[in-house]
Write a structure and sequence with these properties.
The structure is a homodimer of 338-residue chains.
Chain A lengths: L1 E5 L3 H21 L4 E6 L3 E9 L1 H11 L4 E2 L4 H7 L4 E4 L11 H10 L3 E4 L2 H17 L4 E2 L10 H8 L5 E7 L2 H13 L3 H10 L8 H4 L2 H13 L11 E2 L7 H9 L2 E10 L2 E10 L10 E8 L4 E7 L3 H25 L1
Parallel strand pairs in A: 1-2, 1-5, 5-6, 6-7, 9-11
Antiparallel strand pairs in A: 2-3, 3-4, 8-10, 8-12, 10-11, 12-13
Helix pairs in contact in A: 1-2, 1-12, 3-4, 4-5, 5-10, 7-8
Chain lengths: 338, 338
Amino acid sequence: MDVALVGFGTVGQGVAEAIATKNHVLEQSLGDKVRIVAAFDSSTYAVDKSGLDPLDLVKRKAAKGKLGKVRKDSIAEMLKALDYDTLVEMTPTNIKDAQPGLSHIRAALGKGRDVITSNKGPLALKFRELANLAEKNECELRFEASVGGATPVINMARELLVCERICSIRGIMNGTCNFILSRMESEGIPYEPALREAQQMGFAEADPSYDIDGIDSACKAAILANAIMGLDITVHDVERTGIRGINLDAVNLAMQERKVVRLIGEVTSRGAEVSPRLIPRGHPLSISGTLNLFHIRTDLAGEITVAGRGAGRYETASAVMADIYTVMKLRRSIGQRD
Amino acid sequence: MDVALVGFGTVGQGVAEAIATKNHVLEQSLGDKVRIVAAFDSSTYAVDKSGLDPLDLVKRKAAKGKLGKVRKDSIAEMLKALDYDTLVEMTPTNIKDAQPGLSHIRAALGKGRDVITSNKGPLALKFRELANLAEKNECELRFEASVGGATPVINMARELLVCERICSIRGIMNGTCNFILSRMESEGIPYEPALREAQQMGFAEADPSYDIDGIDSACKAAILANAIMGLDITVHDVERTGIRGINLDAVNLAMQERKVVRLIGEVTSRGAEVSPRLIPRGHPLSISGTLNLFHIRTDLAGEITVAGRGAGRYETASAVMADIYTVMKLRRSIGQRD
């Protein structure tokens, strides 16, 4: 399968390394490998029909800060002209207008190419448009990496829980907020120093509002609402309260009742919401630290929980690889049918 | 798909009801339905090539305690003569000689029929023989319901984590033990009254040794070791310590260190083990109550946790239905290929 990698930051580099490490697994179980025929960072690119060496791309990026030639046209324009089977879109999330990822995905789906993305922006703002475009052009749009990093919540709901009616999904959808709340609870420190600790450890940005105001969680809740509950909403439709208002008194009061405060994203057939909630200690949602966790209520199974690392170079690459595997498997079964 | 249901206790009745409820989902997504062509309880049976009404079977069993005519031959003999596509084997676990389930599964696989089972015995004692028989006769042997009830740990590892190298699985594999340990911890009550409470609530048998001595956990650990780590072991190869020796002092001492005592099954490429361990509060494995939970370490994703209800009529049926879906999907893709 010929892929075009777009976005070559932490996630893109992790995916290139994962392709190098796991191509033999793909070949063993599916009889096909991934060939990288194009790779783009924000200003440069490399193209080779016979395949680019993934580890060579990573080395080049580390040594020179670029992949190859300086780009003159937009990536979207180039994607329209290029020859490839699958776009792997890994540019950063932008929840203002979802660009440039939105244009990249439109360009690929528009010419009937499968798309795998880790980018929340296009899915949190234009989900239905993109899903419809994929359906019309009979191609795959997959985005496991966009929600919960390595946590296979979307593929679990779509592939393993097919016979279940999913009633709700509640989750810890942001590791930074959960780290802050966990530290307030276990160390008895106030909100501000817990936030500074998260910043020092690299979990939270200098401007932490995207995490602590619940915007990141709201993006994930919107994606799940669209992908799993079949809704048609954007991040702006998600009712949202962050953790800025949580003080140590609230955390301590909860602990006296054997409860913990957690920022919970909730998705039902009626919509999505993000807000701090009290969770009994020992409940799956009471988990500490930076993990992401999703608690799914269904009619037969009752409740199923899945948790994993919400971010990281190889963790996010893991979810992209799972989608690459599925797309290759689907392409193979279509090939056999034809 | 024509199925023969064998075993019509709680699980068998739950599966019959689930088939009645979910046949429209199967038809919608796969274009085929389940038709029950035979059903067996321990002494009676009903057979109808044109299909038995699943809810009628459940009613008959509830009203008369039997499904139909009294059986003269063994179920295994009858399964050899019967015409069906897939055996759903749900007789109770027997870890002495795995019978009668073992003979049922051998009979079906022996004539190239797919098998779905919730029965731990044959898998904990004769895994490799049965897996080899299935492979030789090109049929499916699936057993999601045998480990962790509704928790989709096997299908997750096999379908969703294909690109991952699984290094270890640690899990809370017995809900009864976890209930007892959770109650000792949250209520400060000693082991004996916590066990009696579990018995009164119907979680533990009058003879609780199968649960509290870790035998049930060891069966599940052996199945996971065989199915996911590719080993060839039985329940007897699992090093095993139960929770009989755990007193309230140990639980309280752990709590002072912000830890909890949990009975953990652990599976690696070197083998399987069941023993009480100290787990930090807030860690995925620190979960309270009767859930089953599996914490999977892998090379790319790092760690993935999946949890769910370990037992129950509809919960176990949920896992059987997931396997029914997969087998129907595979049969369809083979049909399309031919």
